[in-house]
């Protein structure tokens, strides 16, 4: 597997991957994290244009996608019912999904992101048991609660060297 930046000509494929992810999440007890429309096509396009959208390829096929950026994230400025492991500079991963065809693709993406910065933060919905398990399996520590821009509560995790 390899990671690279997403390209503008891949927008429609990424939109379809997120549509499938929403259906998968809804079918596995997590219908409200991304609802019916998140992430919107315009957000995915903005991620690509900003250089923060990445894909994971296996044998030339895109099998996963995610947002990765180094630097502060406003949603992580405040944490409740806990604390971050440290306050050093960090990277963030958002909107990670795979098409389910290659076992371990999401873990590969998370490990790649961690290798870029050595201090990684991520969050997920209380109902997203699959992601919680993935984070635990990959050495992330539950740190507390954060709130997204729309006021939704999320479980916050961090992995640090």
TrEMBL record:
Gene Ontology terms for molecular function: acyltransferase activity, transferring groups other than amino-acyl groups
Coiled coil: none
Organism: Candidatus Mediterraneibacter faecipullorum
Domain N-acetyltransferase: residue ranges: 1-161
Name of this chain's protein: GNAT family N-acetyltransferase
Family annotation (SUPFAM superfamilies): Acyl-CoA N-acyltransferases (Nat)
InterPro entries (alphabetical): Acyl_CoA_acyltransferase, GNAT_dom
């Amino acid at each position: 597997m390899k990671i690279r930046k997403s390209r503008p000509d891949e927008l429609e494929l990424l939109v379809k991957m997120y549509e499938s992810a929403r259906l998968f999440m809804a079918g596995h007890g997590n219908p409200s994290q991304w609802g019916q429309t998140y992430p919107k096509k315009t957000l995915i396009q903005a991620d690509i244009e900003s250089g923060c959208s990445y894909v994971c390829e296996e044998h030339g096929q895109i099998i996963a996608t995610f947002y990765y950026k180094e630097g502060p994230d406003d949603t992580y400025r405040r944490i409740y019912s806990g604390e971050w492991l440290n306050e050093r500079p960090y990277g963030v991963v958002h909107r990670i999904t795979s098409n389910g065809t290659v076992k371990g693709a999401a873990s590969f993406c998370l490990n790649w992101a961690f290798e870029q910065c050595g201090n990684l933060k991520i969050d997920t919905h209380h109902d997203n048991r699959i992601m919680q398990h993935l984070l635990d399996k990959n050495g992330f520590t539950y740190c507390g609660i954060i709130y997204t821009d729309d006021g939704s509560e999320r479980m916050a995790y961090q992995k640090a060297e």
